[in-house]
Design goal:
Radius of gyration: 44 Å
Helix content: 25-40%
Number of domains: 3
Structural class: alpha+beta
CATH class of the largest domain: Alpha Beta
CATH topology of the largest domain: BirA Bifunctional Protein, domain 2
Keywords: Aminoacyl-tRNA synthetase, ATP-binding, Cytoplasm, Ligase, Magnesium, Metal-binding, Nucleotide-binding, Protein biosynthesis
Cofactor: Mg(2+)
GO molecular function, one term: tRNA binding
Strand order of the largest sheet: 7-10-11-15-14-13-12
Pfam family, one: PheRS_DBD1
Largest sheet: 7 strands, mixed
Bound molecules: phenylalanine
Oligomer: single chain
InterPro entries: aa-tRNA-synth_II (IPR006195), aa-tRNA-synth_II/BPL/LPL (IPR045864), Phe-tRNA-synth_IIc_asu (IPR004529), Phenylalanyl-tRNA_Synthase (IPR002319), PheRS_DBD1 (IPR040724), PheRS_DBD3 (IPR040725)
Length: 492
């Protein structure tokens, strides 16, 4: 609208002398007119020149008087022809209206105050609210006389303001209508062949691009936590195990680990079982036989659990409840070849059908390490754990006897937290039982020391997150991930 008005006006006029007047005449918004002028100027349709003018604007007080009248008029009107006591007059008016009104009305000699009798009386019959009238004139863009301006300025009812506008003439690229340039070269342009006649908009190489939304790493994935654990394992010569199967059979997750089939962890309250496919397709049959036997009857110096081991139970598919399921597969594979010592690690997701609370989720990440060699002892385990955790800055460790169906002995690992000033549990560990390793076919003198911990725990401590749901799962605030520093130095 503004653009059409400007271009068509210039078609039969030399110039637009004043964009302000132009806008007023055409009933257009001056700000919009200015924007269009800038754009048309940029494309050379017009040449615009700045105009600056001092104008007057009403102050807040000025606006009030323009709307409701000046205090002096209110004061005058509040005095009846027979006069009024000061007290009564004061009651009729706001304090500020009374004060300002008194000063102005007596200056104008509209009223008089008899100090002895304390009576206000009118001195003239008629008054006009000049202040209000002049203020309204100014608001309408008319220029009042210098006397009035001076008076209103002194009373701080108006203030000068610089008004900016433009005078406009035709530019070198003037046309009554803006040409539209094609911005894209489309398939349709090619099909129709009209691209030959199109005028394309030139590239503006200095235009600012859209700010790029880069990818953001979740704290659990950041170098400082997951990557740091991975690096430590690699520096210690550990190989990463393939953890790319969330779905596992009960056999590898529990049975191979000598976890009895009545164990409460194997209940659907603690484990997510799969409906489809509900069971695993294949297991190594001769190994399954040996596992069944060790559960039922024992062997290798063990008495076993003395119960009826059921194949159907072992076949059930589940979401792995720990990455030790991966370790059991890897150790079985290792046992199928001539023995070689190995150091393995994994960091990946596990699932437990637990009630979700501040520190527990139904899925989390486990870090697991194991060393498999001849003649390893509990001393080796403690030594490796010291080495591993001191690389994270935790050299003050304590161990507490614990129980796992697949390790004997088992130890919980505690570290002294300087910040919390207390011992915090940081992991679980042990030496895998012969009932687990020997049915796999590993040589009798081979021991496996292993430990596991959650990735979330150190991350929560590191990032000061006290509710795990703020860190992982559907309630995570994406802002947290975006605002998080790219890197952090030091852990714990
Ligand atoms: N699998 C154990 C857990 O889920 C951790 C662990 C790994 C314990 C290896 C001992 C040896 O807590």
């Amino acid at each position: 609208m503004e653009e059409e008005a400007i271009l068509s006006h210039l078609q039969d006029h030399e110039e637009i002398a004043d964009s302000g007047q132009f806008a007023a005449e055409k009933g257009l918004d001056h700000d919009k007119v200015v924007n269009v002028i800038k754009s048309l100027h940029g494309y050379g349709y017009i040449v615009a020149q700045d105009i600056k003018r001092e104008t007057l604007v009403l102050t807040e007080e000025g606006e009030t008087y323009a709307a409701v009248g000046s205090p002096e008029i209110h004061l005058f009107m509040a005095i009846p022809p027979e006069g009024i006591s000061r007290e009564a007059l004061e009651q009729r008016l706001d304090t500020s209206v009374f004060k300002i009104g008194c000063a102005q009305a007596s200056k104008l000699k509209w009223v008089e105050y008899d100090k002895k009798k304390k009576i206000f009386s009118r001195q003239v019959q008629h008054v006009e609210d000049r202040v209000k009238d002049v203020l309204i004139q100014i608001k309408d863009g008319q220029a009042p006389g210098p006397e009035d301006v001076r008076a209103l300025k002194t009373r701080k009812l108006i203030a000068p303001q610089i008004w900016k506008g433009y005078s406009v003439k035709k530019g070198p690229n003037y046309a009554p209508k803006r040409k539209t340039f094609a911005t894209d070269f489309t398939r349709e342009n090619m099909q129709r062949g009209d691209w030959k006649d199109l005028e394309f908009k030139g590239y503006n190489f200095s235009a600012k691009g859209q700010p790029l939304e880069g990818g953001h790493l979740h704290p659990l994935l950041k170098a400082s936590v997951r990557q740091q654990f991975k690096m430590i394992f690699q520096q210690m010569g550990f190989e990463e195990m393939p953890t790319n199967n969330f779905v596992e059979s009960s056999f590898w997750n529990f049975d191979a680990l000598f976890q009895p089939q009545q164990h409460p962890a194997r209940d659907s309250h603690d484990t997510f079982f799969l409906r489809v496919p509900a069971t695993t397709k294949e297991l190594p049959e001769d190994y399954v036989e040996r596992v069944k036997k060790v559960h039922e009857l024992g062997g290798y110096g063990s008495r076993g659990y003395a119960y009826d081991w059921k194949r159907e139970e072992a076949n059930k598919n589940l979401l792995r409840t720990h990455t030790t399921a991966v370790s059991s597969r890897m150790l079985y594979l290792l046992a199928q070849k001539p023995f070689q010592p190995k150091k393995y690690f994994s960091i990946d997701r596990v699932f437990r059908n637990e009630a979700v609370d501040k520190t527990h989720l139904a899925e989390f990440h486990q870090i697991e390490g194991l060393v498999c060699d001849r003649g390893l002892t509990l001393g080796d385990l403690i030594g490796v754990l010291h080495d591993f955790f001191s690389r994270l800055g935790m050299s003050n460790l304590r161990f507490k006897p614990a129980y796992n169906p697949y390790t004997e002995p088992s130890m919980e690992i505690f570290s002294y937290h300087e910040g919390f000033k207390k011992w915090v549990e940081i992991g679980n560990s042990g030496i895998f039982r012969p009932e687990m390793l020997l049915p796999m076919g590993l040589p009798e003198d081979v021991s496996v020391i292993a430990w596991g911990l959650s990735l979330e725990r150190p991350t929560m401590i590191l990032y000061g997150v006290d509710n795990i749901r703020d860190l992982f799962g559907h309630k995570v605030d994406l802002g947290l991930i975006k605002r998080n520093p790219i890197c952090r130095l030091g852990i714990y």
